[in-house]
Specification:
The protein is an alpha+beta fold. Helices cover 47% and strands 6% of the residues.
């Protein structure tokens, strides 16, 4: 079944079965899901799936002449996710063996089904609403205004998925400027919240920090990869954002599912979290 039925009782604890994830480690949306699965210590397996990238290259298949992982265009996958995008999960720890798609929705589902009593789910309905609002804010905007979606798509496709000699510097500069604009907005919120903790909703991380943390990491590692290849981009002074990123880099699950996977996407397997943090000025 593709929807949760009435009376569904998710399984928690040591009797959990492995959740299946369709996606790829270099997908920022898949990284969100894998990160939370690790934080909640939920057993899971990843089935590689993508319409754009494959196993033989980090470059876009259309430019590299390679085959994508596929799967997303099969009848079986489309029955789970009618949009044919990644990620998607199937959770057998549920009476309906539910399939869930859209990364933010998956994270909210995992927090509610398997993370009650943790900071990830949140202690009250009000806390969860605030966290969910920040997740939705991360999706705002469109291709012709500063927003994460446009900045992410254009920057990663140019830096990690296009051969360096074919990169479009104009697209890179514009995408970087979009990231800076949106992160300046976020800095204001983090400054207001500084007294209660480094995270968006307080002392503990919540689902609000998942899309934001993945975006910070993608931006910083794109800047690092460009610097490696001889192109330096000016970085703004965002001390509260830097503190959030430092807090996330101290979390093993974030490093494993997000930082390390993203570094590998840029062929920077030996790049260290401390080096990434240094790219954000302290003052």
């Amino acid at each position: 079944m593709s929807a949760v039925g009435v009376g569904t009782t998710p399984v928690r604890g040591t009797n959990m079965q492995s959740i299946t994830v369709w996606g790829r480690p270099s997908s920022s949306n898949t990284q969100k899901v894998l990160w939370l699965l690790k934080e909640l210590d939920i057993p899971h397996k990843l089935i590689l799936a993508s319409a754009r990238l494959g196993e033989h290259s980090q470059l876009l298949c259309t430019g590299a002449g390679t085959k994508p992982y596929g799967v997303v265009d099969t009848e079986e996958y489309l029955a789970m996710n009618p949009h044919g995008l990644i990620p998607c999960i199937r959770d057998p720890n549920n009476d309906d063996n539910v399939a869930v798609w859209e990364s933010n929705t998956i994270c909210r589902y995992l927090a509610e089904a398997h993370g009650v009593g943790t900071g990830w789910y949140g202690p009250t309905a009000a806390h969860r609403a605030v966290a969910s609002g920040w997740m939705d804010w991360a999706l705002h905007g469109y291709d012709h205004s500063p927003c994460f979606g446009s900045a992410n798509h254009h920057l990663i496709d140019q830096v990690a998925r296009t051969a360096s000699e074919q990169r479009d510097k104009g697209i890179i500069t514009n995408a970087h400027a979009q990231y800076c604009s949106v992160f300046h907005q976020l800095e204001g919120r983090l400054r207001e919240n500084a007294a209660t903790g480094a995270y968006l909703t307080g002392l503990l991380p919540s689902v609000a920090d998942i899309p934001i943390g993945v975006e910070i990491n993608r931006w910083v590692l794109c800047v690092a990869a460009l610097a490696r290849d001889g192109t330096d981009l000016p970085m703004p002074v965002l001390p509260r954002l830097r503190s959030l990123y430092a807090a996330l880099l101290a979390r093993p699950a974030f490093v494993a599912a997000v930082f390390t996977a993203e570094a590998a996407h840029h062929n920077m397997d030996h790049f260290l979290p401390a080096s990434a943090l240094e790219l954000l000025p302290e003052a």
